[in-house]
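Risk mitigation, structural track. In case the binding assays with zinc ion fail to produce interpretable data, a predicted complex structure has been prepared as a fallback.
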Amino acid sequence: MSWADEVAKRLPSMIALRRDFHRHPELSFQEKRTSEIIAERLTKAGLEVRTGIAKTGVVGVLRGDKPGKTIAWRADIDALPLTELLQAPFTSGTPGVMHACGHDGHTAIAITAAEILAARRAELPGTVVFIFQPAEELLSGAKPMIEAGVLDSPRVDEIYGLHLTTQDPAGKVNVRPGPTMASGDGFSIDVVGQGGHGAYPHLSIDPMTAAAHILIGMQSLVTKEVAAKETVVLTVGQLLAGTKNNIIPDKAVMRGTLRTFDMNVREQMLGRLQSFISDMARAYRAEASMEMTMGCPPVVNPERETGLVHRCAAEELGESAVFQGNPVMASDDMGLFLRERPGCYFRVGISPTHDRKVPHHAPEFEMNEDGLPVGLRVALSVLTSRLRA
Ligand SMILES: [Zn+2]
Ligand SMILES: [Zn+2]
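Fallback model:
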């Protein structure tokens, strides 16, 4: 069966919900209003609802009247620290906060899927666990949700989810087996020297010179210590030091991110970075230490479940709507869920119809809402087919 008619009926409600979340975005671990609305809607639909998981996470359990598997659907709910530039009636009403990654759409799709399936509880086999995760943008919400046992009671067999993307056109579904999104680690390096007068560097230990050599030198770890066929990105996005042109500061701070698709490469790089930065600093008589600020593994989709999602999407939308895109260097802590259970994380196009492709995390970010019913149809198709399996 196709979900087209059912989804068409719920479309105005889903769009209104997405726009409401868009109008009222909330930052990671502060999704108070968002989680209240999620809980309210799920409770009204008759789900068992648990709130306050990992601060602002919500879980809704929908038990069908027939026996079947237990399948989880994960949606992330947080917004970003940006001021929106788009002019629309539902433009963010909170200056400095904006849904610029599409998580408002993820939340609206998951709530609507829960409402549709709850209305068919009598014919539904098994149990669906809807997981609304906070703080994806900090790569910090999945871990405490898993630790709180959201995959354990009831015990989840498989987990699925989607990310909307402006990189693909509306109507298309991008399903890829294997590594599909990169690991993401944040690091902060303190280089400590000894401050002094800019005229007498020999009487100081200049932490900025050491930091500059560390910054350049780190790239040789990528090119000289990792096999050429692997993918590694090492970016320093912040370099903070000094107060005046003729003062040598006593400290420089460097913050960056490391991305790769392979856990062994990730471990290798993190291990080498530690020793490389301290050895390099010592060469300039400085001291350096590194702290990891956040991190998650790559998103790796197992072959079997990914094939099943591909089939469901093709049956629902037609084969021409489904394709296998390239892996992306963006990260998502859905990777942690997929290390615990088999499943698949796929992408659904929301590219605006005009030519300009605006990236996520930009103040001009714009969603083509035509992608929302597409995502919902695939979600329903995947959930019902996996419950029955
Ligand atoms: Zn994002
Ligand atoms: Zn996102």
